[in-house]
Each structure stands twice: as C-alpha cells, then as structure tokens.
Design a protein that fits this description.
The chain is mostly helical. 66% of the residues lie in helices and 5% in strands. It starts with a helix and ends with a strand.
C-alpha cells in the first residue's frame, strides 16, 4: 500500500468521525436548546432527519475503517450529506409554520460549507468539486421550491431581510459563493496532492538509492535539478571490489532454495552497510557476489 493511498484511507476515517461528531452535536443542540416554535407543531423534522441519517454515518465509518469505500460510495456519501442539510433546511418552514422562503435565511445553510470543506481532507480535488456542485444544486432546488410554492419574489432588499420574500440576487450570490469556495479548495487540494506525491516519490527514490549508494552520492543524485546525460559525472580515484562467499555454489546445491535466499539476504544486509559506511557504492548483486566501488 502506497503512502498516498494510506493517507487517503486515514482521511476517510477522519471524515467519518467528524460526520458522527456533527450528528451528535446537532442532536444534543436540538434537545438542549430552547424550542423556538409553537408547542402544538405535530411534525418534528430535525430529529427524524438525524435518525435517518445516523445509520448511514455509522455504516460509512465502518466501511472507512475496513478500507472498503469505493469511489461510487464516496460520491453517494457526498450526495447524502448535502441532501441531509437541504432536508433540514426545508423542514424549518414546516416546523415553524412559515412560507418556504423562510428557510433560505436559516443559519444551518452554513453547514453546506462545512461538508464541502470536509472533502478537502482527502487529497483528491474531484470529490471537493463534486461536493461543491452538489451543494450549489441543492441550494438551487431549495430556491426554486420556495418560488414554486408561492413565496413572493422581491427586488427590495429590506423586504427580503425583514420578511420571507425571496431575493433572487441573494440566492445567486449564495450559489456563487459556494462554487468559488469549491474552486479555491479544489485548487488547494490539487496543489497539496502534487506536493504529497512528489514527496512520497522522492522518499521512495531516496530509500531505493540508499540501498546501493552512500548518503553523499544519494544526496547528489536527488538534489540534481536536471537529468543525467551520457558523459555526466565526476572523476574520482576509486577501487573496484568483488566480494563473494567461498564455497557458496557447492553449499547452495545441497540446501533448499528458501534457506539459500534467507542466507543471501542476511549476507547482503551485513555487507552493504559496511560498504556504504566507507563511502562506497554497490554496483550490482550477482548471486552471492557483490560488486562495489
């Protein structure tokens, strides 16, 4: 498993834990906060939405923990997250017995930005973009629903602020803000992903090179900004040395292959550090032979 894949899987676990914390926070907040609606309201949409959403959060956490979240599941997860917020917003006008335009001013809309930002914890800009577009589409649906159900549309900002009228320009601003934030986060995630990939590649290259070259030579190779061309290099007085095990071939013929490979691995693990310690480099392994200089 690559370091990048492992980091992304850990990010999905973190996202799932934050979703679970969000549900818990909303539940506690709902039951502890004073109710701002009339006592005779028959429908309590908020606990119902949280009750339906909670099993999904638990299932997502388990799948993330077992590393079984596929790209399709991740996209479905994003849609369900945004849908949960949109349904919560929609429910406010039912719960408070107000025109549909009432929910367009609910502060819960800010949670859309939280769920978009959650996707930035994974180094994949595609999911950030999908979350942002889904959130913008959800807000558009909420706006159109409010208009279609008879909420007055106004161009008067004061009427919009003090009443339940729909100011189309304000909703367009909200959608633009969602999309702009999404693009900014996507660019940031993309840049961070490239940095992570470069870092992981360099680390892997350093580990591989350090198996054959001294730290000084490894550093010179990795620090070089351009590739190597034929004839590039530095001239040193050096000694080529061939090391092998006396009687190895005859011994290997009488021993099972697994034992031979274990012996070779142990032998090479002892020889290589000694060579590198004296600023030597490994040219190649040839069975029990080690060519170094």
């Amino acid at each position: 498993m690559s370091a990048i894949t492992q980091t992304e899987q850990q990010s999905e676990i973190l996202i799932s834990l934050m979703q679970a914390g969000f549900v818990l926070f909303l539940g506690v907040l709902y039951f502890l906060a004073p109710k701002g609606y009339a006592g005779e309201v028959a429908i309590r949409p908020v606990p119902l939405v949280l009750l339906v959403y909670s099993p999904f959060v638990v299932a997502r956490l388990l799948l993330a923990w077992k590393r079984r979240l596929s790209p399709v599941m991740l996209n479905v997860s994003i849609v369900l997250d945004i849908a949960m917020i949109c349904v919560l917003l929609w429910s406010y006008h039912v719960q408070y017995q107000q025109p549909a335009g009432f929910y367009l001013k609910a502060p819960t809309a800010m949670y859309l930005f939280i769920f978009i930002a959650l996707r930035s914890l994974r180094f994949d800009a595609r999911y950030v973009l999908f979350a942002g577009v889904t959130a913008a589409a959800g807000w558009l649906v909420l706006t159109l629903y409010a208009i279609r159900t008879g909420t007055p549309v106004t161009s008067d900002f004061i009427a919009y602020i003090t009443g339940s009228d729909v100011l189309v320009g304000a909703q367009v601003d909200r959608i633009i803000a969602i999309l702009v934030l999404t693009v900014i986060l996507a660019v940031g995630v993309s840049r961070a992903g490239r940095v992570l990939t470069t870092s992981a590649t360099e680390q892997h290259a350093r580990q591989e090179l350090s198996r054959y070259f001294s730290p000084e030579v490894t550093a010179k190779i990795l620090d070089r900004e351009t590739g190597f061309e034929p004839g590039d290099g530095e001239v040193y007085d050096a000694v080529a040395m061939m090391i092998d095990i006396r009687g190895f071939s005859a011994w290997a013929e009488s021993i099972d292959p697994a034992t031979v490979m274990c012996a070779l691995a142990d032998y090479q693990s002892r020889i290589v550090p000694i060579v590198l310690k004296h600023n030597g480099s490994i040219d190649k392994f040839m069975g029990d032979g080690v060519l170094c200089h």
